[in-house]
Structures are given as C-alpha cells and as structure tokens.
C-alpha cells in the first residue's frame, strides 16, 4: 500500500455510492417502493427493539448480571462519566456500593494499544465490587474509566483468602479472555502461553486479574510467586472459546 | 419514483414516507449489502421500510440510525431463519462487491484491495464499528445504538478497529495480533 494515503482515508473513499445503484437499479427500487406502500395494512412481523450485552462467567465469579445501561443511579454525582455510571449502576442497586468511591487500583498493557485496568467500588457495609476492563489511554488518564469495555467482575465482603489457584473465573469474547484467580500467599503472578509469550496479572482485593487474547493457541498457565520469589503454584486458565 | 398518487389530494404521510425512501433507502441498501447477499438485501430494505411505513410517527427526525437498527434486526431474523454466516472469504467478496469501485486516480486498485482485505480480516464487530462511521456516516453514539452496545464500548471497539486497520497499512505481510507483554528478566 502506498504511503501517501492513510488507510482510513482510503476506506472513506470506498464508501458505496454507484455500487449500490448497480446492485439495486432504479426501476427495481421503484417497484419495491410501490410494494411497500401497498403492504402497510398487512400484519407486521415482530421486531426486537433492544439488545443486551452478555456476560460470560464460570467458577466462583459469576455475577449473572446483564448490562442494560441507562439506569441513572448516581448520575447526580456529576463527577463520574455517564458511561461508567450506566455500566455499573446495577452494582449500586444490587450490592449497595457507592459508585463515587470508584478507584482504579491497577493498570497493565492490554490488547491493541488499550490498557487493562481493575477498578474497585466499595459500600458502607464493607462490600467491594471489582471490575476488570479494557480502556483507551485517554480514558486511563482520568480518575475513573470513561471509554472502556467492561470485562465482568464480582462483589464480595472481604478479599478472597482462598489458596492460590483454588478457584478461577473467566469472561470471554472474540477478542480476549479476562480471568480472576485467588492469590493466596502469592504476591505476584504471570500468565504464559505455550509459545512463551507472557501477559500481565495484577493483584487486587485478594485476587489476580489478567487477560490473554482469545486468538492465541494452547493452554494458558498462571504461575504465582511468593514474596521471596519462590513458586507458590501453577493453575491452568480455562478457555471459553 | 414517478407519479403514484395522481388522483385525489396528496397524502402527507405517503409524501413523507416517499421522501424518506428516496433519501435513505440506498443507504440502508448499502448497509444490508455488507451483511447479506443482494437478493436478501433487497428484502431487508423492503422489510425495514415497511416497518418505517407502519410506524411512521415513531421515525425520528434523524432517521438513519433508527432505520439501521430495524435493518439489523431484520437481518438477524433472516439469519435465524437459515442464513449461514459467511467465512472470511465470503466477507472479502461481499466487501469487494459493495465498496465503491473508485477510479484509479483517487484510489489505486492495489490500495483498494489491501484496505478491503484488512477490513475483511477484522472481527465482525470491529468491521461493523468502522463502517458504521466511515461509510454510514454515523456518530459514535448513533453507531453504538445500531451496534447494540454502549457508547463507551463502541468507542473502544472503534479505537481497536482503527489501530488494526492502520497496523495492516504499516505491514501487510504479518497477521495483526495483540502485542504480548514482555515479562521482566
């Protein structure tokens, strides 16, 4: 491809114009309009009007939550991005956490120039909700994510005290798997793939959170390390796709 | 569209609907051609505008996002009733068919092929994000409605798609994959 034209400019130049006319000649289009005008009185087929974002989860982290957005809870806080409020408002309702306590606890490199961040929110009864997500670098410069892709999460009263690798939870889509594993006495962890590549794991609220690309091959293994550098254990992260 | 209501006073609703059709049916057709074969695309446009005709009072002042949401639902219904999801080669063929055959002076054929190949290699969600903005002319908020996700999730998708397309621009010989994190020695 030549260097003088950006691929996005080329893409815009390829916006369909005459190609639509070629595929749908005016005479055919006029005939279609006539039919539609006449068909107004025939029974209508059912049309879905809403879509849902699905959350996949296994193991102990399943929240069963479905994001519908626009709930409006905590919108009056004024300092939180509306998309953040829309996405996590259900936690305020279900778990009683205060969205204004949202805090980005850890950030690591993510796929395609994005950042992998883990955000926590807490409630007056000690409940803490933990939300891993991908966000843009611009979003990561703000106090809480504003442009992000939610990766699931969970709420609980206290940090997990389970042994390293004794449990696991995984959310996945076509792009990435996001996982959680209890830390136990491990203070650092690293996920590796059979090809030797490594992906970050961050420790938040008693658990390691991380990701790996869905398109990768082989079984990913998370290795936990104690403070003295010794290996605490290894656990395979299940693939959902 | 020639005269179709010669007798009697003009029907304001029919006039509005006809204007809607004239202005937006080619754009809905362009959207449908990206997802299904030409014959099915014509059915999708007809069904989409039949919904608009029946619910004309619900059609907003900026109708394209609304029409594309209906078109998307219609396509989903077609798929549920037996449409087979295309493989990568099918995507590329469909894109080559629907993309403007631009004159060489504007877009050299080799550039056109390279961009369309890179586009076909994206995930369906990423490709849709790019084209809703670049071809359909929607804003991120409008496109998010059509894609069925939040604006922030759509923005991430669009960001990722643009990066991948530009990465393919930089090198067309390597597959586009996330960059692994380098673990400390």
Automatic annotation (TrEMBL), chain A:
Keywords associated with the record: Membrane, Transmembrane, Transmembrane helix
Superkingdom field: Bacteria
Spans through the membrane: 56-80
Protein name per UniProt: Uncharacterized protein
TrEMBL record, chain B:
Record carries keyword Disulfide bond: no
Domain of life of the native organism: Bacteria
RNA polymerase sigma-70 region domain boundaries: 20-83
InterPro entries (alphabetical): RNA_pol_sigma-70-like, RNA_pol_sigma-70_dom, RNA_pol_sigma70_r2, RNA_pol_sigma70_r4_t2, RNA_pol_sigma_r2, RNA_pol_sigma_r3/r4-like, WH-like_DNA-bd_sf
Gene Ontology molecular-function annotations: DNA binding; sigma factor activity
Domain spans labelled RNA polymerase sigma factor 70 region 4 type: 112-165
A GO BP entry: DNA-templated transcription initiation
Matches recorded under Pfam families: Sigma70_r2, Sigma70_r4_2
Keyword Flavoprotein: no
SUPFAM superfamilies reported for this sequence: Sigma2 domain of RNA polymerase sigma factors (SSF88946), Sigma3 and sigma4 domains of RNA polymerase sigma factors (SSF88659)
Keywords per UniProt: DNA-binding, Sigma factor, Transcription, Transcription regulation
Listed transmembrane segments: none
Classification via NCBIfam families: sigma70-ECF
Record family assignment: Belongs to the sigma-70 factor family. ECF subfamily.
PANTHER family xrefs: RNA POLYMERASE ECF-TYPE SIGMA FACTO (PTHR43133), RNA POLYMERASE SIGMA FACTOR HI_1459-RELATED (PTHR43133:SF8)
Entry protein name: RNA polymerase sigma-70 factor (ECF subfamily)
UniProt source species: Blastococcus xanthinilyticus
